[in-house]
Amino acid sequence: MPTAVPPAVLPEISTAAPSAIGVAPCDQYLERYARCIARWPPGETRVALQDALTATWTAWHEAAAGPGRDGLPMTCAVAMDAARISLGQQCDWGPPPRSTALDPFGVHACDDYVAKMRRCIDTRVPEHERAPLYDALDETMLAWQDALAGPARSFVVKACRDAHRAAKRRMAPYRCKW
User: Of 129, 123, 115, 119, which is closest to residue 160 (Cα–Cα)?
Assistant: First the structure.
């Protein structure tokens, strides 16, 4: 059975097989990275970046097929942040990624808090200040996910409500709508 090939890094392989990993943040990263290096840079630098993209695709493709799949959304979000820093001025990376593997929690207070925080960050916070806020939100979401799976489940609703109240105060300078 043939293995899918990496995204359209080189025109001759672009239509050979599907290139998606099947993990949204990873697919988004691969697509944007491929689009970026197709326009910039020239020569040997482009070839080196294409090789790096192919190696990344291969590793993520293998991880997506096995037990490493659960960690891919966060891994790809970190890769997007790194690319945004290292190649940012040459490429359009879009808004910073957020963890989507944890959505929704199925706990109204948590889902409501996360949706409002994301809307606040996306619409009110200057782009250069967003990454640490997304990181904090992701860490909070991971902690809540762990709590939901264990004996601390009963405390999650209170934690989400407390986080919501604290965010209203902490995010007040951005004039977010809660």
Answer: 115
The rounded distance, in Å, linking the Cα atoms of 66 and 79 is 20
pLDDT at 172: 93
pTM of the model: 0.48
* SS3 track for 26-84: HHHHHHHHHHHHHHCCCHHHHHHHHHHHHHHHHHHHHHHCCHHHHHHHHHHHHHHHHHH
For 66, the token pair is 């096995």
Amino acid at 129: E
Helix 127-148 / helix 153-170 crossing angle, nearest 10 deg: 160
C-alpha–C-alpha distance, residues 133 and 113, integer Å: 14
Which of 36-50, 66-80, 91-105 is predicted most confidently?
A: 36-50
Separation between Cα atoms, residue 142 and residue 148, nearest integer Å: 10
